[in-house]
């Protein structure tokens, strides 16, 4: 592999896949790191530029092997929503391994959680990081480990904060249920309220931003916001999804009480109660600093992102329904 080597830790996730696509488009080699060899081979086995490496995040020696020979780590490691205590633990192990192996740089893909309740209509990087939830505190601890290592001169670190995202492959996003229901002509079960200002980033836009940030020396030692393609609402997005699917909008809303009730049977919904404030007191980010740093931050308009997502979901369903025809088409 070339001297500008990069490893994607957490490559199996949807953000990892889109960062890999950005690197592919640039003709760059990269290493994909994940727990499942089968999953990595399925996603990246056809790309000759992809080096596939499995790791065991419980084993420091395994983490060192995954980081060995790399200049940059892009860290996108996910945990179950009910296991957020692992975020700082995994970051500490990965940082120790990366530093021991002489890795120069780490790019952490973060969230809005560390900001806590927004104090301003638009949140810049100057906004205090005072998380009001356990998950926010765990994410802040994760960030602080990287920022402290950067300040100490052990390794260079930067953080990119993302809002909610949508698009192909984002089955866990708030809007995925609406895409799925619209294509089936059914009612979308949404977590409300639906008319509060919100922002979303199209998942395909994330990869090029991550690689540009990785390559920008001035990015390190700081964290950066990536805002969505404008302020909208869940209701407006769902209306557009149904309209493009050729269906009248049909939706039902789950308030906090119903989310709590659903949490009796679903661990994800149980944990979602804590983060419900993001739907009533949304963190809408200002990313003018990122735009000034990178010069260009492409954002797909919502209508086009919805069109592309519906098209890919239709194609996936057609492939499942008629695998022989799909194979012939490719």
TrEMBL record:
User: Which top-rank group of organisms is this from?
Assistant: Bacteria
InterPro entries annotated for this entry?
Answer: Epimerase_deHydtase, NAD(P)-bd_dom_sf, NAD(P)-dependent_oxidoreduct
UniProt domain NAD-dependent epimerase/dehydratase: residue ranges: 8-225
Which Pfam families does the annotation name? Answer: Epimerase
- Gene3D superfamilies named among the record's database cross-references: NAD(P)-binding Rossmann-like Domain (3.40.50.720)
UniProt-listed PANTHER family: NAD(P)-BINDING DOMAIN-CONTAINING PROTEIN-RELATED, PROTEIN YEEZ
Protein's recorded name: NAD-dependent epimerase/dehydratase family protein
Q: What is the lineage of its organism?
A: Bacteria, Pseudomonadati, Myxococcota, Myxococcia, Myxococcales
């Amino acid at each position: 592999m070339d001297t500008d080597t990069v490893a994607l830790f957490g490559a199996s996730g949807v953000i990892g896949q889109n960062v890999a696509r950005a690197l592919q488009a640039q003709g760059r080699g990269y290493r994909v790191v994940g727990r499942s060899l089968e999953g990595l081979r399925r996603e990246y086995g056809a790309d000759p530029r992809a080096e596939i490496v499995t790791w065991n995040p419980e084993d420091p020696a395994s983490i060192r092997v995954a980081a060995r020979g790399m200049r940059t780590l892009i860290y996108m490691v996910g945990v179950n929503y009910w296991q957020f205590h692992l975020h700082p633990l995994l970051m500490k192990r990965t940082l120790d391994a990366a530093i021991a192996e002489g890795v120069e740089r780490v790019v952490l893909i973060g969230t809005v959680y560390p900001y806590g309740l927004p104090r301003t209509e638009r949140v810049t990087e100057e906004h205090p990081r005072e998380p009001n939830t356990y998950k926010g505190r765990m994410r802040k601890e994760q960030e602080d480990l990287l920022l402290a290592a950067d300040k100490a001169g052990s390794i260079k670190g930067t953080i990119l904060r993302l809002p909610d995202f949508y698009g192909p492959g984002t089955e866990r996003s708030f809007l995925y249920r609406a895409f799925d229901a619209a294509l089936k002509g059914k009612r979308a079960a949404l977590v409300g309220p639906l008319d509060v200002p919100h922002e979303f980033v199209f998942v395909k836009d994330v990869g090029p931003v991550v690689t540009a940030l990785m390559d920008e020396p001035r990015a390190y030692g700081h964290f950066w916001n990536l805002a969505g393609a404008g302020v909208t609402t869940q209701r407006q997005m769902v209306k557009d999804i149904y309209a493009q699917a050729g269906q009248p909008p049909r939706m039902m809303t789950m308030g906090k009480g119903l989310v709590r009730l659903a949490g009796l049977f679903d661990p994800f919904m149980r944990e979602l109660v804590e983060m419900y404030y993001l739907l009533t007191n949304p963190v809408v980010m200002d990313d003018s600093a990122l735009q000034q740093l990178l010069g260009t931050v492409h954002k797909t308009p919502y209508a086009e992102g919805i069109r592309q997502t519906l098209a890919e979901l239709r194609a996936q369903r057609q492939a499942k329904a008629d695998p022989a025809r799909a194979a012939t088409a490719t």
